[in-house]
Amino acid sequence: MSSSAAARFDRGHTDDLITFLSASPTPYHAVASAAERLEKAGFRQVDEAAEWDGTSGGKYVLRGGAIIAWYVPEGASAHTPFRIVGAHTDSPNLRVKPLPDTGAYGWRQVAVEIYGGPLLNSWLDRDLGLAGRLSLRDGTTRLVNVGRPLLRVPQLAIHMDRSIYEKGLQLDKQKHMQPIWGLGEPHEGDLISFLEEENGIAAGDVTGWDLMVHSIEPPAYLGRDQELLAGPRMDNLLSLHAATAALTAASASGDLSYIPVLAAFDHEENGSQSDTGADGPLLGSVLERSVFARGGSYEDKARAFAGTVCLSSDTGHAIHPNYGERHDPTHHPRANGGPILKVNVNNRYATDGSGRAVFVDACERAGVPYQHFVSNNAMPCGTTIGPITAARHGIKTVDIGVAILSMHSARELCGSDDPHLLASALAAFLES
């Protein structure tokens, strides 16, 4: 890498993102990784079932694949507004079914269900691991990660499907996406018995599981000058990592006018409607309890929410060199061009003019360039947790993110500068 390229981006932040992505094959691992960083910064976990106190300092709540963390400055009033960075922890992938042991013609396979909207072809002929959480008979859960080559979804040889040249690859979600993991006849309980043995759990002690497949290929710099980063689950662990770094920076900054908050939810990829999703009650409950724990009333909560702003941070689409016509003709977000402001007048994104001003102010104070993303009018626009957060809580919300290529692939691509630029903008927003 040339010296000029090395100076362009904060290698330490991007290196740490690589570590974070590698340690976070599932939403449950991702929030555990974020919590570990917060603990090192002095935050402490609070129990939702316990009574909360109104003391200052950093606190966080873990629920499944979601985490809400906040820092109460010394002397904060009950009606002090919040500054929230929202993100999500889940990514499209293949998830293990309740009866996982299957197979055919002497091949042992694992029965999987398609989660979200993955690019199915990106999971073919790739060495895959298995990770998630196991529920035990005593009511506890155990995070597990088999991070070595364990499964593979083999593609049909071209000799048996020459129509692919004319029709393209046609994949049936049920028939063609079940990974193999060995030879022989399937036996009920084999997969879970393997995981029990692998993780030192007594036989028959696992009574439930939330397991998913992940690519074991590690994230890596790419390009002549390593100006690109390739890796899994950037949508949207890139934002979770940046938000965690921004919150820890804000908590150490001293004089804060707001209460900075990290809100990372599960299940964004399938609609956010769960007790750990953005359309659930978790964020509102945590913010309300924070107000009430500081002696506040309903009136204080209403005042705090009225002054609150949320930046919903999620990845967006960088201009694709091979499909330029799919993008808006005048809006071309580029890798390493800084975070993007996402706009859609039909409220698929929550950004409006006043919200744009908040984001621009944060970028200018951080010395960070920014870009705009708008969908081509002829193409349907995706959405985020932004409109859900705005509608559910009555909070001004702005949709932002980082421009990437290959969104929803098992392996995505971003600029090496952009993760640090996003974190810097988020820190300025939380510290203002």
TrEMBL record:
Statement: the UniProt record of this protein carries the keyword Amino-acid biosynthesis: no
Listed InterPro entries: M18_aminopeptidase_2 (IPR022984), Peptidase_M18 (IPR001948), Peptidase_M18_dom2 (IPR023358)
Record-stated family: Belongs to the peptidase M18 family.
Source superkingdom: Bacteria
GO biological process, one term: proteolysis
Cofactor(s) this protein cannot do without: Zn(2+)
Record: residues binding Zn(2+): H88, H159, H408
Entry keywords, A to Z: Aminopeptidase, Hydrolase, Metal-binding, Metalloprotease, Protease, Zinc
GO annotation, cellular component aspect: cytoplasm
EC numbers: 3.4.11.-
One GO molecular-function entry: metallopeptidase activity
Pfam families: Peptidase_M18
Full protein name: Probable M18 family aminopeptidase 2
Top enzyme class: hydrolase
Keyword Hydrolase: yes
